[in-house]
């Protein structure tokens, strides 16, 4: 069994740490977070490990996970390199979708890689039960990539290679599907609230349609899943909705109009006529007053 040190055991780090610890893949050895209290909470969640007071005080390990926020990874890699704790047999990896393994260059000759789980770790307790089946994209030095493929497969991740040059666009795709979907839910709840429908009722009302829409998209693709006024070319309904939303909140109306334009483009790949599309584009492009 390998020994893993974690620098930055937040939502992702503590979830993966616990899955590996419970699965017998790794012995979680040492955890360093910005605050010792947070590191203590992480080791309690993982069920193993010791709190480190600094990076320099961590014991040597054959695997190092740097799972702090993206903007801190380069800084942490530099600090860790300066300790001399990482030798040429070690594997060091981060889990950012946006950054490549290049950011870990100061740690060479250790073998370095990035391993991005396409998973939303909003609540570690949930992710323990839902991580299996998530994809994990890998790139970096061969020894690290090969070992990480086994390590993520051990907790039922589906690993695949990613070109480091494509990571920004690939990550934008994940962000749109996950984070923007969440923001759309919030915008939808704001609209329901303005209609006098309480949040709990709105969530109950939305559950079947949101789940159905996700299922439709996965099974049929977006072109065949689009329903509603834009797909039907129902100009009057769209106009009324732009007006109603503008009266409530400018940002709601702006989002409705901008996404509506993308929706028209999608609907044109289906049965929406060129004429209806042109009228909808004119309506949705109008600046709100
Ligand atoms: N969350 C996701 O859904 C998700 C999905 C895929 C990939 N990722 C990637 O996973 C990584 C971690 O994301 P996350 O959502 O788990 O972040 P998070 O919940 O915000 O946790 C970040 C952790 O890093 C620690 N930290 C921050 N700066 C540090 C530093 N300079 N030195 C040591 N520890 C530091 C924080 O310590 P304190 O607790 O003491 O502040 C915190 O425990 C990122 O690279 C992210 O891109 C996240």
Automatic annotation (TrEMBL):
The Putative oxidoreductase/dehydrogenase Rossmann-like domain extends over 5-108
Q: GO: which molecular function terms?
A: oxidoreductase activity
Q: Which InterPro entries match?
A: 6-PGluconate_DH-like_C_sf, DUF2520, NAD(P)-bd_dom_sf, OxRdtase/DH_put_Rossmann_dom, TM1727-like_C_sf
SUPFAM superfamilies in the record, alphabetically? 6-phosphogluconate dehydrogenase C-terminal domain-like (SSF48179), NAD(P)-binding Rossmann-fold domains (SSF51735)
**Pfam short name (any one):** Rossmann-like
Which UniProt keyword terms apply here? Answer: Oxidoreductase
The positions making up the signal sequence are none
Q: Determine if Metal-binding is one of this entry's keywords.
A: no
**What range(s) does the DUF2520 domain occupy?**
136-261
> In its UniProt entry, what is this protein called?
DUF2520 domain-containing protein
Q: Which species does the entry assign this protein to?
A: Microbulbifer okhotskensis
């Amino acid at each position: 069994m390998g020994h893993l040190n974690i620098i930055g055991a937040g939502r992702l780090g503590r979830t993966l740490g616990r899955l590996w610890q419970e699965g017998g893949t790794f012995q979680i050895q040492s955890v360093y977070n910005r605050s010792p209290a947070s590191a203590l909470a992480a080791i309690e969640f993982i069920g193993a490990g010791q709190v480190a007071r600094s990076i320099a005080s961590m014991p040597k390990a054959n695997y190092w996970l740097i799972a702090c926020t993206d903007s801190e990874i380069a800084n942490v890699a530099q600090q860790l390199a300066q300790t001399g704790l990482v030798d040429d047999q070690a594997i060091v990896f981060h889990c950012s979708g946006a950054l490549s393994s290049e950011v870990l260059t100061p740690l060479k000759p250790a073998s370095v890689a990035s391993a991005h789980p396409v998973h939303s770790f909003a609540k570690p307790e949930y992710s323990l039960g839902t991580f299996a089946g998530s994809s994990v994209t890998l790139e970096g030095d061969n020894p690290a990539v090969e070992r990480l493929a086994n390590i993520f497969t051990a907790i039922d991740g589906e690993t695949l290679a990613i070109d480091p040059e494509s990571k920004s666009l690939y990550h934008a795709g994940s962000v749109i599907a996950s984070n923007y979907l969440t923001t759309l839910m919030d915008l939808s709840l704001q609209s329901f609230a303005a209609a006098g429908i309480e949040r709990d009722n709105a969530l109950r009302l939305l559950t079947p349609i949101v789940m159905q829409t996700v299922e439709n998209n996965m099974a049929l693709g977006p072109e065949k899943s689009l329903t509603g006024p834009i797909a039907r070319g129902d100009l009057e309904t769209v106009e009324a909705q732009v007006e109603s939303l503008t009266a409530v909140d400018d940002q709601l109306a702006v989002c409705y109009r901008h996404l509506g334009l993308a929706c028209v483009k999608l609907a044109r790949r289906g049965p929406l006529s060129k004429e209806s599309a042109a009228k909808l584009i004119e309506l949705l492009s109008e600046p709100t007053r």
